[in-house]
Structure formats: structure tokens, C-alpha cells
């Protein structure tokens, strides 16, 4: 914690208040608080109407491509291409995470190096084209090696935009707005689980000379290219130069961010911010919490239909019964993250979500013959697993001072945190069906570890905020200038979201 204590050496520790010109501009543009709030509501509606649909559809498509492997397994993929060997299926799952992890930090930094709309749009067009080709090519592969190559491309494609979208949201939304929007973004992944089950159920009834799992890959892979083109054409970039906003709305957006002591930062990569991201111990602790979620998410992606089938359903029925848990998880996630935004708290909600997750894995581990209780546990693991994603992403976005620091630490969530996901392909062997003590037990242990770690970070953030209040003579004034571009989260006036 020595780095944080360096701030105490700054002689003037109070944040710099707005100068006279800025105050005058605010007074001229905002003649009354009520008018300002009405304009802000209209601005938010405008942002949501343009930014959310495109990013949500991108994540929906991404998770359809990622998760269809689990449904394809039940439709004959493992038998026809993998000689019915569990270890081969595990390697196919693993291959996705190799390129996904390697590309995450460079992909997120790309949105800082160039305007984010170009980075996300170009990345989506280029890599989503590869992903669409790869996912579609999986319908035509005839070898074990071929399907591995396809999965590598799919992982590379998703790495380029996943956390970059979170960074993009942080440029447009205030701290107490971002979790609600991220819940909709990540909720697309939850809906993908539901839609994927419905699509797989429908495809399983197709009578064709082509194997149904090949048809599944074709249906879910092709739309990605169209989405990439739409992102390039219509996704707005930075607020200060966006085609979306009028000059008055740009000024209002600036005041919105300044009201929470947010610094817009500069274009390009600030390598001092990159260095701060890599040397900040908090980044690795929060990344560990995210890795606990990644174990659940990767377990669901590769094995959830198989877990549902173990309750006594046929292959076709299992795909259909994966839908209700995802639908329930979507509703709970929206409510939980909206509440987190309202009270400006992340840690306690993260602990609550992991508790739901732990209850589900505990039931699956200890209850074998009561199928109704086990199916209830499936609702818990999906709900708890997915609810934590936007909460942790918001935590990182809120608690990083500069955009370059934020880009790297968001990249950590996909690169460093996915080490846990690398184990999931090997912890659900068919011989352990339906108990799977290793898979259920590891997920339970990681959920408990996440609860304890989140509790520690919540306490630390609160204590650090109190220390800064004492050293700086009180909380920062609303609208104060905070030198986050230079000092990042160490800047006087910066406060963490607990």
C-alpha cells in the first residue's frame, strides 16, 4: 500500500475547484436545476437508444457462438468428431480460452489508442467475420483438429471487444449508471443461454441428411457479420466529438462526468496509467474474485446441458430445460444491478450473488436423488454466476482513476482471470455423472473464496476513503477537478466505490 501513501506528500491535497469560466458556463447553460435534470434525462434516453441495442446484440451473438458447443455435444458432436472421448471435448473447450486470454488486454487497450467506436467497430467487423466464418465452418469440419482451429478463432474474436465495451460505457455513463447498463449488456449472455437452448431444441427436430449439430453452428454463426458492420456505421465514439450529440448535449455530458469528479482523459495510451494498472495490488485481488465467477461461467458454457440431462431428461428435453434458469437469472440480474447503482455499493451485492451461487453448488454436491431440488440448484448457479459479472466490471470501472489504467485492469478480467476457466473442461468427466464431486466441489470452494475476498476489499475501500477524507479535510466537492489523468486512483479527490 506504499503507492497509495505517496499521495500524502502532496502539499495541497484538496481537489482543484472549478475555475470562474467553468462556473459561468455551467450557470449559462443550466439556468435551473429542474431544466438541467430534464435535459439529462433526455440525454440518457438518447444514449441508451443508440449505444445499448448494438452492444447488447453483439454480446448476445458472442455468447450464442461460445455456448453452442454444449448443446452440440448432446446432438452428436462428441460422438462423431471426438471418438466419444471426454478429454478431446475438454481440449476443444480449452482452445477457446487460449486466444481469448491472449487477446483481451491488447483488445481493450486498442479502444484507448484509437477512438473506441473505430476499435470496437473494426474489431467486430474483422474478428466477427472470422468468428462467423469459424462458427459456420464448424458446421463443415470433419476432423478433431479442424474444430479446435475454429474454436481458437472464436476466442480471438470475442477477446477484441468484450471488456472494450465496458470501457466504452465508462466514457458515457456516470458511476451510478454503469452497472444497470452492464446488466443489460451481460444479460444478453444470459438470454443467449435461453435462446441457445430454444434454438437447439428446435434444430433437434429438423429432419435432414446434415447432422443437427452442424445446422446449429450454421444458424448461430452467420448473423455476426451484419452486426459488425452496424457497429462501425452507428456506434458513437467519445462524447466530445460524437455525431450523436449536439454542442449543448456535449457540454451537458461533460458536466455530468465532472459532477462525479470523473476526468475525461486524453486520446491515446498513457503508459504511466498502464504501469499503474500492473503495479496496483487491488487489480489482482479483484481479478481473483472475477476468476471465481469465470469458473462457474465456463462450467455452465460447456456442461450445463449435460448437468440438466443428468436429472433424468433426454437430450432434447435437457436443451429445453436449460431455458428457465437463464430467463430467471436475467430478471434477477437486472434488479440486483439497478439496486447496486442506486446505493452506489458493489461489494455487498457481489457477496450476495456469490452466496446464491454457493447455495446452488452445495445442493448439487450433496443432493443426488431429489431431482426437483437439484433443478432449483441449477437456477441458483446460473443466477449467482451471471449476476456477478456486471457488478465486478462496474467495480473495476468505478475504482480506476484514468482511462488507460481502466483499460488494462478491465483486460485483466478476461486475461488473468480466465486461469480458473482453463480447469473447467477437465472437472466434469462422464464417469462422475451425476455427482461430479470435483466439478461441483471446486465451484463451491471458489464461491466461498470470492465471498471472503469481496468482504476484505469492501472493508479496505471504506477504510481508505475515510483515510483520504481525514488527510484532505473532508470529501471532495462535487464538480471538483481531480488530476486522475496524471495520478490515476491516487489523485487527491478520488474516492473508491466500496
TrEMBL record:
InterPro entries: MFS, MFS_dom, MFS_trans_sf. It is found in: Membrane. The keyword GTP-binding does not apply. One of its GO terms (cellular component) is membrane. It comes from the Eukaryota. The keyword Zinc does not apply. Residues 470-498 are annotated as: Disordered. Keywords: Membrane, Transmembrane, Transmembrane helix, Transport. Its main location: membrane. Pfam families: MFS_1 (PF07690). It is a multi-pass membrane protein. Residues 51-467 form the Major facilitator superfamily (MFS) profile domain. GO terms for molecular function: transmembrane transporter activity. The chain crosses the membrane at residues 89-111, 144-170, 182-203, 215-235, 283-304, 316-336, 348-368, 374-396, 408-428, 440-461. This is MFS general substrate transporter.
Amino acid at each position: 500500500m506504499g503507492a497509495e501513501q505517496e499521495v500524502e506528500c502532496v502539499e495541497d491535497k484538496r481537489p482543484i475547484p472549478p475555475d470562474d469560466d467553468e462556473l459561468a458556463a455551467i450557470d449559462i447553460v443550466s439556468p435551473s436545476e429542474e431544466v438541467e435534470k430534464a435535459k439529462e434525462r433526455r440525454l440518457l434516453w438518447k444514449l441508451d437508444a443508440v449505444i445499448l441495442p448494438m452492444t447488447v446484440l453483439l454480446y448476445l451473438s458472442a455468447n450464442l457462438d461460445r455456448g453452442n458447443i454444449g448443446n452440440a455435444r448432446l446432438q452428436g458432436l462428441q460422438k462423431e468428431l471426438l471418438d466419444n472421448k471426454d478429454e478431446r471435448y475438454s481440449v476443444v473447450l480449452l482452445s477457446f480460452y487460449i486466444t481469448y486470454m491472449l487477446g483481451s488486454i491488447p483488445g481493450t487497450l486498442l479502444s484507448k489508442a484509437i477512438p473506441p467506436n473505430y476499435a470496437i467497430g473494426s474489431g467486430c467487423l474483422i474478428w466477427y467475420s472470422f468468428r462467423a466464418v469459424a462458427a459456420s465452418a464448424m458446421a463443415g469440419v470433419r476432423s478433431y483438429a479442424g474444430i479446435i482451429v475454429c474454436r481458437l478463432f472464436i476466442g480471438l474474436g470475442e477477446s477484441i471487444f468484450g471488456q472494450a465495451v465496458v470501457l466504452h460505457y465508462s466514457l458515457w455513463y456516470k458511476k451510478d449508471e454503469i452497472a444497470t447498463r452492464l446488466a443489460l449488456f451481460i444479460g444478453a449472455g444470459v438470454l443467449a443461454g435461453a435462446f441457445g437452448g430454444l434454438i437447439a431444441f428446435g434444430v433437434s427436430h429438423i429432419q435432414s441428411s446434415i447432422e443437427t449439430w452442424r445446422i446449429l453452428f450454421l444458424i448461430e454463426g452467420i448473423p455476426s457479420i451484419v452486426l459488425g458492420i452496424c457497429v462501425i456505421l452507428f456506434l458513437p465514439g467519445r462524447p466530445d466529438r460524437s455525431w450523436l450529440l449536439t454542442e449543448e448535449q456535449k457540454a451537458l455530458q461533460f458536466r455530468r462526468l465532472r459532477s462525479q469528479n470523473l476526468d475525461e482523459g486524453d486520446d491515446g495510451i498513457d503508459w504511466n496509467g498502464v504501469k499503474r494498472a500492473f503495479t496496483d495490488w487491488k487489480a489482482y485481488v479483484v481479478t481473483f474474485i472475477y476468476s471465481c465467477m469465470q469458473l462457474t461461467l465456463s462450467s455452465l458454457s460447456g456442461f450445463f446441458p449435460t448437468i440438466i440431462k443428468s436429472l433424468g431428461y433426454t437430450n432434447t428435453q435437457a436443451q429445453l430445460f436449460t431455458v428457465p434458469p437463464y430467463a430467471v437469472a436475467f430478471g434477477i440480474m437486472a434488479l440486483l444491478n439497478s439496486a447496486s447503482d442506486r446505493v452506489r455499493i458493489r461489494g455487498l451485492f457481489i457477496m450476495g450473488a456469490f452466496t446464491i451461487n454457493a447455495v446452488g453448488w452445495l445442493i448439487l454436491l450433496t443432493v443426488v436423488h431429489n431431482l426437483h431440488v437439484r433443478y432449483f440448484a441449477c437456477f441458483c448457479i446460473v443466477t449467482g454466476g451471471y449476476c456477478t459479472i456486471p457488478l465486478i466490471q462496474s467495480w473495476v470501472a468505478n475504482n480506476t482513476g484514468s482511462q488507460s489504467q481502466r483499460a488494462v485492469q478491465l483486460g485483466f478480467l478476461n486475461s488473468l482471470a480466465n486461469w480458473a476457466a482453463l480447469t473447467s473442461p477437465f472437472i466434469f468427466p462422464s464417469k462422475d455423472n451425476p455427482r461430479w464431486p470435483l466439478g461441483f466441489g471446486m465451484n463451491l470452494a471458489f464461491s466461498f473464496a470470492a465471498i471472503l475476498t469481496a468482504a476484505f476489499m469492501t472493508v479496505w475501500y471504506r477504510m481508505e476513503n475515510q483515510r483520504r477524507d481525514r488527510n484532505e479535510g473532508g470529501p471532495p466537492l462535487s464538480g471538483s477537478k481531480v488530476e486522475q489523468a496524471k495520478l490515476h486512483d491516487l489523485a487527491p479527490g478520488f474516492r473508491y466505490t466500496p
